[in-house]
Design brief:
Shape: globular
Order of helices and strands: HEEEEHHEHEEHHHEEEEEE
Largest sheet: 7 strands, antiparallel
Strand content: 25-35%
Number of strands: 13
Structural class: alpha+beta
Radius of gyration: 20 Å
Oligomer: single chain
Length: 248
Amino acid sequence: MLTFRDLTNEHAVMSWDKQQSLFRVVGGDHDWKIDLAAASLVLSNEQGTNEFLIQWLGTAAKATNEWIWSRASERVDVPDGLRDAARAIARFGEEHSISEFTEPRASLAELNPDVVALVCAGLCEADGYYRCETDEGAEYFLFENAAVRAAADSDPRRCMNLFLSILPHIDLDHKPAFIHYFSCKGYELSGVDEDPDDESTADPADLAALVAKSPRGSVHGRFDELGRIRELQVAPPADAATGSETPS
């Protein structure tokens, strides 16, 4: 049975990658402005402005310490069409019996809204999500934006470091998350035995060592008996020195 954790493993790292592309476009220091009637988010900095087509996902409410899906909100100032993505997520949840998607609200102690947004960005094939902080809490929006899509980068060392960077923040099953992320980035996945030159045709998920290959180089991962990362290593496409990092 599909679970919310399965979906987190499948989508969180790729959506985290999209968030880094967002900040490559708009920078860390920027202002935001929402036009709900136009389904528009505008982010601006000294270099200019970028406009994003949005869907309202939900609210992290300070007063009740709850996550409230937009479809359950009683706000009347939001066009009904901005809740379409949230309704689609609810239908998906009903089809797969995923309570995190079907319940209209949940305690923030039980459901992390940023993880929800990462998963939903993947499920809805959005270009990312944006969190608008307000006095009442935080509003979460999925968005579409061509500049963010164009900022995507599949460099092996960048992908390796990005994968490592999410692990302290989100509870993931390392091996399936690795497989999903590098597959989404266009890498070819295979398993290797203890001999790093001996590639295996077995299911990568069943092996303790994996290699993700691309024309720009490869990322080699070794996992312990629980599927947690022991080491990640980058190898260039030609014979050259490799670099490696091990999560702390």
